[in-house]
Here is the input.
Amino acid sequence: MNAPLYRIPGAATLAEPAPAAAAPAEAPRTIGEVLAQSQVEAVMDELDRDLVGLAPVKQRIRDIAALLVVDKLRLAHGLQAQTPSLHMSFTGNPGTGKTTVAMRMAQILHRLGYVRKGHLVAVTRDDLVGQYIGHTAPKTKEVLKKAMGGVLFIDEAYYLYRPDNERDYGQEAIEILLQVMENQRDDLVVILAGYKDRMDTFFQSNPGMSSRIAHHLDFPDYAHGELQAIADRMLETMNYRFGAGAREAFDEYLQRRIAQPHFANARSVRNALDRMRLRQASRLFAERDRVLGRDDLTTLAEADVRASRVFNAA
Amino acid sequence: MMTNPTGRITQGQFSFLPDLTDEEITAQIGYGLQKGYAWSVEYTDDPHPRNTYWEMFGMPMFDLQDAAGVMMELDNCRKTFPGHYIRLMAFDSTRGVESIAMSFIVNRPAHEPGFGLVRQEAEGRNIRYTVHSYATDKPEAQRY
Here is the structure.
C-alpha cells in the first residue's frame, strides 16, 4: 500500500493512543488482583458447584487457569512469554460432561482474556468435511472463521480421519485445522472430543495433531453416588422431586442400568428422568376429576420409577 | 482533479484518509460485527466509479463473532491479488434495510494512473463527457 501524500489534522496523534490503551490501567501485582480483575474464580466455583465429580478434569482446569494467571503477572514484569498453546482434547465415555466442560472452558478462557469473545462453536465431521473435491476447504474455513475469538469444539473428532478410504476429504480438513491451530493460536482455541480408544487411534495416525494439543484431559465415568447427585440436580432444575420411596427405587434403577450395555452416564440419567416424567404425566392424566395441587404436579412417585423396563428385565 | 489532489481513487468510506492500518481495519470490522452486519471481501482491477459490482472473494461471512475471521479472508485475498483494489463490505440484513451498510477500500495498487476526461462530439455541436480509466487500456490482469 502506498503512503499517503498528504497529512490530515490529527492523523499523527491518532496512532499514539493505541499502545497506551493496550497496557492495563494498573498492572496487577498479586494473584488476588489478577483473579479480582478477571473474575475467573467465580467461574471455577461455578464449575465446582454445578458439575458433580470429574475431580481430575477440575484439577487440570485449575492448573491451566493458574498458569494463565501467573502468565498475566509475568507479563506485568515484562517477562514476555509466548501465548501458551491452549488446544485441548477431551476424551471419555458418552455423557461424562465433555460438552458442558467445553462450554465452561470458553467462559474461563474469555475471563482470563485468552479468547476475545468466549463463544463456543460445536461442530462434527459433517460441518467440516465437504462432499466433493474443492468443497472441504471453504467449508472448514467458514467454520473456523465463525469460531474465531472463541472456542471451536469438534465432537467425535476421530471421524475426521478415515484410514480405510485414502481419498477421504477428512484429511484435507485436518490439514487446514492444523494450519490455523498453529498460526492463529491467539484467535482460536480448538477442543477435540471423543471416546478414549478411538481418539487414541486418531492421534496415532495424526501425530501432527497430537503434538499441537497441549492438554489431554480424560473424563472418568461417574460413580454410582455421583449419578444420584446428578439426578437430584437435574430434578431440581426441572422443578420435580422424588416422592416417598422413589429415591430408593431410582437408586436401585441406577445399579441395574449401569450393569446394562450402552449406559451413557449423565445422558442416561437425563433420559431416565424424562421417561419418569412421561409416566407421571400419564398417571395424572388418568384421573380426570382430581384437583391437582403443586405437590401432585412436582412429585415423581415410586411407581413411576418402578414401571421402567429395567426392573422387568431382572 | 481539484477535489482529489493525490490522484487516489476515492470510493466508499475513509477513502480521503490515509490507508487504514490492519488494527484500524480490525476495529471497523469489529464495529460492523457488533451491529450484526455480514462482511464480505471484493476485489477488482477496474475501479471505474460506475463499476459497482466487483468480484467477490469467497463467500459473504455470516454469523461471525470476531474480526479475526474476516482478517483471515482479507489476508488471503491480499496474497492472491496484491496489486488489485480490495474492499470490505458489510451487509445489513435488517428487514427494510437489506443493503450494504459499510464499504471501504483496504488494498490499492502501488501506482494508480487515475482517470481521463473523454469528450465525444455528438449531434449538432453537442459534447458528451465521460471518464475513462487509464488502467483499462491494458488487458485484464496486466493493469496494475
Observations:
- Chain B has a mean pLDDT of 90.
